[in-house]
From TrEMBL:
Residues 9-66 form the HTH lysR-type domain. It comes from Usitatibacter palustris. It holds the Pfam family HTH_1. GO terms for biological process: DNA-templated transcription. The gene is gcvA_2. GO terms for molecular function: DNA-binding transcription factor activity; sequence-specific DNA binding. Belongs to the LysR transcriptional regulatory family. PANTHER family: HTH-TYPE TRANSCRIPTIONAL REGULATOR, HTH-TYPE TRANSCRIPTIONAL REGULATOR TRPI. This is Glycine cleavage system transcriptional activator. It comes from the Bacteria.
Amino acid sequence: MDKTSRSLPPLDLLPGFEAAARHLSFTKAAEELFLTQSAVSRQILALEEFLGVQLFERRHRALALTEAGQAYLRTVAPVLDHVREATRRLREPRTGHVLTVTTTLSFAATWLVPRLARFRKEHPRVDVRIAASGDVLDMAREGIDVAIRDIPQGHEPAGSIPLAGEHVAPICSAEYFEEARAAKRPLAKPEDLRHHVLIHVHDPTGKWPWIAWETWMESSGLEPFTTAGTLTFGQYDQVVQAALLGQGIAMGRMTLVSDHVRRKQLVVLFGKRQRLARAYHAIYAPGAAARPEAQQFVSWVRAEIASRE
């Protein structure tokens, strides 16, 4: 091994360090890099061993950079940014035009991915990269061109483009609806929910109160009541899948389940949809609004939503 090789750490350890330092969390770094938390932790330990210094202070349920870690991050982060940008520029002539889109996990899984082939058919030279995340990503740092986000009314960033309003309503599969009626447990009025299994999104911190059953019941004027059972899932696409499989009644986000309703796979109950004070918007990264592929993508999303309203 020559002197140059010994002066550099294993380069595959650097993205893990940069992500952990940016999030101050091994868990969030692992989610971003599609690794396990223990894999990221091992990478950091290996890097610290190579450097001979401690980069992080491991506190109880918290992570902090040491002075050495802060100094190392100031050098590593811009270097990785330059590598990402150089890679993007080299790939573009080979693959056409690279477009990076970030959105929520639920929008990606239930709305965007099922339709993406149609965009690719219309724009075959656009190489689309989807960065689905529950976190609001730094668009410049992550090389993101367009973000699609569900934003509360009055908090829309300047220049954002409205895509669709947000409505919610109880939903179940067509088979579940008919079976409930045949079993003399009809779903004729909201109070009938007490005889059925309700499907929930796991939300211990109250991050998504607008899709909580408790919120809907309160706004519908219902007193709290015990139901026949509950099912709880970590992601909204799992909630939709469980509803499609007839496992209970879910809170439907109409933009995300509209195709299933249109195909009569899901039934909207009680004939009432609640309009929320929030909507989906597209946001361009600085400079991305001038890129034809970014404009084409946003126009396509708007047209897809409008055609199914």
